[in-house]
Amino acid sequence: MRVIVNGEPRELPDGASVAEAVAGVTASAGVAVAVNDEVVRRSAWDATTLNEADRLEVLTAVQGG
């Protein structure tokens, strides 16, 4: 299936979870995820499956100021 991750199209297996999508983009430490503009709690990443054309935003916290 095709989803959009941080504005870029990506192919994932049908039934892929948010956790699987994040693993393909970055290490999961210090990361927040929104699917179709809704924040997904980290505890729900494994149980939250993705659908065709879903939009994910994977945000990484960085130190600085």
Structure description:
The structure is a single chain. 9% of the residues lie in helices and 34% in strands. With 65 residues, the protein is mostly beta strands. It has a single domain (2-60), classed as Roll (Ubiquitin-like (UB roll)), CATH 3.10.20. A five-stranded mixed beta sheet has the order 2-1-5-3-4. The model has no long low-confidence stretch (mean pLDDT 92). It comes from Actinomadura yumaensis. InterPro entries: Beta-grasp_dom_sf, Mopterin_synth/thiamin_S_b, Thi_S, ThiS/MoaD-like. This is Sulfur carrier protein ThiS.
Features of the shown structure:
65 residues, mainly beta, Ubiquitin-like (UB roll), 5-stranded mixed β-sheet, 1 helix, 34% strand, globular
Please summarize the sheet with the most strands.
5 strands, mixed
Stretches where pLDDT is under 50 for at least 5 consecutive residues are: none
Number of strands: 5
Percent range for β-strand residues = 25-35%
Strand order within the widest beta sheet: 2-1-5-3-4
**Topology as a string of helices (H) and strands (E):** EEHEEE
Rg on CA atoms, Å: 11 Å
CATH homologous superfamily title: Beta-grasp domain
- The CATH architecture designation is Roll
Query: What is the count of distinct domains?
Result: 1
| Count of alpha/pi helices | 1
CATH class type:
Alpha Beta
Characterize the overall form: globular
Helix content: under 10%
Average pLDDT rating: 92
Predict the CATH topology: Ubiquitin-like (UB roll)
- The CA-CA distance between the termini, in Å, is 39 Å
Structural class: mainly beta
InterPro entries: Beta-grasp_dom_sf (IPR012675), Mopterin_synth/thiamin_S_b (IPR016155), Thi_S (IPR010035), ThiS/MoaD-like (IPR003749)
Pfam families: ThiS
Organism: Actinomadura yumaensis
Protein name: Sulfur carrier protein ThiS
